[in-house]
Structure formats: structure tokens, C-alpha cells
Amino acid sequence: MRVQSSFGVKINFLLGLGISILVAVGVLAHRSIENLLETSHTEVSVYAGLGHLEAFLGSIRNAVAAQRSYLLTGSNAELRAYAEARARVSRELDSLRVHTTESDQLMRLREFQTVVGDRLRFLDSAVLAKVRGMLGAIPETLNPPAAATLDLRIEVIAEAFRGRELQSLRSQRTEAGFNADTSSFLISWGTAFACALLLWAMVNIHRHQTGRRIAERAVRASEAQLRLITDSVPALIGYVNREGRLLFHNRAFERWFGRAPETINADSLRGLFGEESYRTLHPHVESVLAGETGDFKFTFRTPDGKIKDLSAQFVPRREESDAVTGFYALVTDITALTEVERIKSEFVTTVSHELRTPLTSIRGSLGLLAGGVTGTLPEKARELVNIAMQNCERLVRLINDILDSERMMSGRMQFSFEPVDASAIIDRCLRETESFAAGNGVRIHYSAPAAQVTVRADRDRLAQVMTNLLSNACKFSPSGSEVGVTLKGAGTVARVEVSDRGPGVPALLAPRLFERFMQVDATNVRRVSGTGLGLAICKGLVERMDGRIGYLPREGGGSVFFFELPTWQEARVEHG
What we know:
Blueprint: H1 2-73, H2 76-98, H3 103-131, H4 138-142, H5 145-232, E1 236-241, E2 246-249, H6 251-257, H7 261-264, H8 269-289, E3 294-301, E4 307-318, E5 324-333, H9 335-371, H10 379-410, E6 417-421, H11 422-439, E7 443-447, E8 454-458, H12 459-476, E9 482-490, E10 493-500, H13 534-544, E11 548-553, E12 559-566, H14 568-574
Parallel strand pairs: 7-9
Antiparallel strand pairs: 1-2, 1-5, 3-4, 4-5, 6-8, 9-10, 10-12, 11-12
Helix pairs in contact: 1-2, 1-3, 1-5, 2-3, 3-5, 9-10, 10-13, 11-12, 12-13
């Protein structure tokens, strides 16, 4: 998803950049054309202005020529020609002013107007004198010095005006040519670069589409392989969305529910399992949609009426944002395993009960023999009887541990919760274990708190846990060492610690210490006997009393076993 998003951003950037460059090239070309058109218009305007200038100068010359002809001939036709030429001077000057926009050129036109006005007044005065017959000698009148000066001034101004117009035109032509060359360069390379970008984008899109088609084929092949694998699994495998709809299922669903695939697709768990079973599933569905993995067992009646014991695992499906969009479900039929466990439990219980009665009788008989009821036994016979009694006691403990373990696993062990003085229970267990500790050459030291610590527990089960931990500590402690017992009350929790100076527990075995039949010995040959069920039973008993049990290595060597139980006040608040 993130790779596709990155590719989309890259392609959009390339396409956007290429299109932007093409738009910029188009704008630049448009502006270049506008500049050329503007230069062309300016050139037309300049040449039109120069044309009006030449027409204006020509009108002045015509007026001078017509005035001279009239002065020489006195012809009325020449007088009319002078009048027409003089009128054209004013008109051409106005036309020239219309085509002029630059301030310095307008200033020259104003100067033109002044000088030409003075020149026309000279012409008019001579014509008027001729009309009135007041002219003197003709040569002086035709070209007086002042008139010659004005004509020269007119030519100077005209030349300056003409030069300025041509200079402006040349400057604009030069700028337009530079702009055209620059624009041509930018347009050519910009178009080439934009085309290259677009071509690169098209090549990348093609590659991406090709890769995507290959990936889609691989995904379809993978999905087909996954479908083959999941369809071959006898367990129910499916994916459920947040609305409780089944979006994926394997073939086991079709066999279990006897329905066609299209009728199962998008059906709900409630519709598949029915209201009765869904009441058990509903809390676990809500829990997994909240992000917690679920592992539980429930009973289900199939459409053909069979009762199935099922084990279910719910695993949430999370998006990159950590939002839960649904969950994966794995439901396994454990009916056969449950039946085997039931048969095994019944067998173990039956055998244990059947063994307990003869063992009790054997133990009693051996006790009578050891007590001398039948007379004093020889030394060797007494040793054999004692060995038999010890092994008989071991078998009794083994049977009791097995029965307790089976009752714990089946949930048939009964608990009677009440406020219990933890220190009193520990004192009782210490007295009962005192002879056993002395037989192992071990002393027990108890650190009792000043105030009474009352816990919520079953009195007999608490004593069973305490006795088991004490006997283990004594068995594994070297002769002459000390076993420490500490009781601490910390407000809502009471903690009991039993520490010894034995060989300790290897770090690799510590996580499995409270498993059934787990036994630890630091030597190659076991020097103490046991069933391997004691710690597992203690763990089950403590947890059933809402507590926890654990192990810590003791500093300087040895072990510290501890368990914690809720105090009576805290437990009363929690349990109403």
C-alpha cells in the first residue's frame, strides 16, 4: 500500500511537471508572438509617422514653392495652390501628432509647430504684400535671411525626429529578435524536456502496470495455493469483518453446515452458529474487535443434531493505522480429545481410588509390624518393613497429587472462601513440617509481621500450598542450612516468601517450573524423590484463590518461592 502510494505521488509529480512545462512553453510562445506582433505594429506605426513627417515637410516645401511662383507671376492659380499647400501643412502636422506617443517626440512636434508657424507667417506676409501691391524688389522677398534660418531649423528638427523614430524602431527590433531567439530556445528545450518527462512517466506507468499484473497473477496463485491449503485443513478457518460478516471461509464450513459456498459468503456468525452458540461467542467477538486475541472453548450443536466440543482462536486484523478491521477465526473440533480426556480422568480417578484402599490397608499393616504387634522383628526385617512403609507413603502422596491435579484440571475441586489469619496457617504448617525439617538437618526461621494479616482464601488449600513449598525447601536445602519464611501485608495484597540455600533452578527451566510433572535436580543423580505435580498443584490452587505464584533466584544461591493473595478487605470490595 505504501509502495503504491509512493509510485502514485511520483507519477503525478512527473505528469504535473511535464504539463506545467508545456503550459509554460505555450505561454512563452504566445508572449513571443505578441512581442513580434507588437514590433510589427510599431514598425508600421513608425513608418506611418515618418510618412506623415515627409508629407508634412513636402507640404511646407510646396507652400514655399507656390508662394514664390505667386510672387513672381502674380497668378491667381498659384495663389490658390499656395492656400491649399498651406492648409495641408496644418493637416499633416495634426496627423503626425496623432501617430506620436513618446514625450520627447511630442516636444519636437511642439517645436515644429512654433518654427513652422513662424515660417508660415513669413510666407503669409509676403503674399499679403503682393496682393496689396506693396512688394519691393522681388529677390529679397523670395528668400530673406530669417526665412532661410527657419528652413534650416525645420530640417534640423525633422532630422532629429526621424532619427529618434528610427532608433526606437531599431531598439525594438533588436529586443524583439533577442526575445524571439530566447523564446525559441526555451520553447524547443522546454518542449523536449516536457516530452521526455511525459515519456518517462508513460514508461514508468507501463512498467508499474506490468509489475502490477505480474503481482496480481502471483497473488492469485498464492490465493489459490492458500485456498488449497485451507480447504485441506479439517478445522474451520475464516475471516470476519467488524459487522460480523464472514468474508472468507474454507471448505470445512460447507461440510460442517451442509450449505453451498454462496449461501455462506457474507453470512454472519450469528446466522451460522445460531443464537444459543452465539451467546457464548459474542463476548469473545467484542474482545477481539477491541484488539485482544481470544482462545476459548465452547459447545455447538450441528445441523444434524450432533454435539461438538470446539476450541476457537480469534486473532484481530489490524491496518497500518492500528485500527482493527476484523478478525481471523480458527475453530477446531476437539470432541474426540475431550472424550479422551474424560475417559483418562475417569480412569485415573478410578484407579487412584481403587489403589488407595489397599494401600491404606498395607500401610496400616506395615505400621503394626513396625510397632511390634506381632513381636520384635529382626533388624533386617525391620529395615525391610521401614523401606516398604516409606514407599507406601510415597505411593499415597503420588495418588493424592494425581487426584488433586485431575480435580484442578476438571474444575471439580471445591473451595470454601473465608477470612483466614495467614500467620496462624503458617504457624500450623511450621509445626507439622518441623520433624520433617529436622530429619533433613534443616532449620526453619519465620519472620512474622507485627499486625495480623487476614486473606481471602480456603483454609485447607492455603495450608496445602504452604506445606508443599516448605517440604520442597527442606528437601532441597543442604544439611545445616536454614529455610526462611516471610509474611508481608502490603495493603491490598499479602505476600508469603519461602527461601532456601539449595542448588536453585537453571535459568532455562525456570519458565517451565510450574508445569505438570516438571522436576528439577542440579545433580546428575536425583537425591530427592517427588511426583513433579506439587508446584503445578500449588499454582492452580493459588490462582483459584485469585492470587499469583512465582519463583526468583536467591542472591548468593538458592531459591525464593512466593505467592500473593488478596487481603480480606480488598477481596470483599472486589467480590461484593
